[in-house]
Amino acid sequence: MRTIRANWYEYPHLYDIAFGWDPGVEVDFVLEAAARFAAGPVRTCYEPFCGTGRIAIELARRGLAVEAIDLVPAAVDFARDRAARVGVSVRWEVGDAGAWRPVGRIDVLPILIDSFRHASAPGAAEAAVGQFARAVRPGGLLILGLDVGDRPPEVTDEESWVMERDGVTIETAVFDTREPGPAAGTTIVRAVLAVTGDGSPYTLVTDDVMRTYTRASLLDLVTGGGQFETCGVFDRRYDLDKPVHPNSRQADVVCVFRRTSK
Ligand SMILES: C[S@@+](CC[C@H](N)C(=O)[O-])C[C@H]1O[C@@H](n2cnc3c(N)ncnc32)[C@H](O)[C@@H]1O
Fold this sequence. Notes:
There is one protein chain. By secondary structure, the protein is α/β, with parallel strands linked by helices. Strands 1-10-9-8-7 form a five-stranded mixed sheet, with helices on one face. The protein has helices at about 10-20, 25-35, 55-60, 75-85, 125-135, 215-225; strands spanning about 1-5, 45-50, 65-70, 90-95, 105-110, 135-145, 160-165, 170-180, 185-195, 200-210, 230-235, 250-260. S-adenosylmethionine binds near residues 9, 51, 54 and 72.
């Protein structure tokens, strides 16, 4: 079988099938967190690391004014086309989320499914949190869903699943290779997509450099400067009534932070 080694985000038609589950649960969580934890009304949203626009488009469909950015032009083109097809308006940008400042004051800034770990160059995550603090208004929320790597060593960190759309089937496996990345505190995470139904079967393999976190180091990064405070830590059940226990080894967390007035 043919193997392509490339950046999977440059293949948005594949990415969008692999991550093609209904974003409703994630978007419900964002809106419920906003209703519970944000001060004042929530009308504006900024989604950095937006990929093919799963979350941004659904939030726009629910009535928010949304701006979204991704580093990969092909992903943004795909998202723009889809938004036009479903008839919603999103302000799309191509660029580095660590340097970008959205237009206006933002009520809610979600970054889900591990995307923030891509800010892996030295100082990149710190710079991004600084940008988010400039973007989000006091009382607004930053919602970060990511793998904090706190799972016990005997538990595998491979995630795999199968998705199908229009005759194309993609079996996705994502796992930490445990090889260190180029900068301290980073690791190489491999994504393997086995694709059938898109011509002859092939495999797309991507190695991403991702920053590693523990839950404590993540909370410290975001709240250490005093511009965000923690409202709660949840898991991928996306249930606000089921916060993660402080001593839990749950690795896939979704953290809700509120912008302070500092
Ligand atoms: C897991 S995917 C996107 C997921 C998207 N948030 C979702 O929920 O479907 C991560 C995305 O981050 C983008 N990305 C990586 N580094 C970035 C950066 N510095 N600035 C903006 N986007 C970036 C990649 O191109 C990719 O589309």
